[in-house]
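Box 3.1 A note on notation
Throughout this textbook, protein chains are presented in two layers. The first layer is the amino acid sequence; the second is a token string describing backbone geometry. Keep the layers aligned when reading.
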Amino acid sequence: MRSTKIVTSFIKDNEKLLILKRSEKVKSMKGLWAGISGIIESNETPLRRAKVEIFEEVGITEDKITLIKSAQEMRINSPQYENHEWEVFPFLFEANNQEIKLNWENSEFKWIGIKELENYETVPSLEKVLFNLL
């Protein structure tokens, strides 16, 4: 089975959680709600990639976020690709009162209560990834 290493980060502001709707321009999971995700480059640490993705996707710089928790990597089967799994490295960050500036990868963002996540059509196992961080 083929595996792709990715990070998925969540940003918390008080009791609200930031979720992003993947745009029609991305390769996979179009139109689904997600955390801030990206593929880990060859010699990069997952934490470094998480911080890069946060800046690229929502415009928040490293000095404005605080790592609250990281969780053990998780393997999630990809419903989109046959014989493929995602190796997900989850992170939870805190960032207060930050302006969100989306790039082309996402079309919308929302700040929601954690229990509200079940009301959204998300990428596979997003709730499972989040609950490993809570």
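Residues 2-131 form a domain with the Nucleoside Triphosphate Pyrophosphohydrolase fold (CATH 3.90.79.10). Strands lie at 2-13, 16-22, 33-34, 36-39, 66-70, 74-77, 84-94, 106-113.
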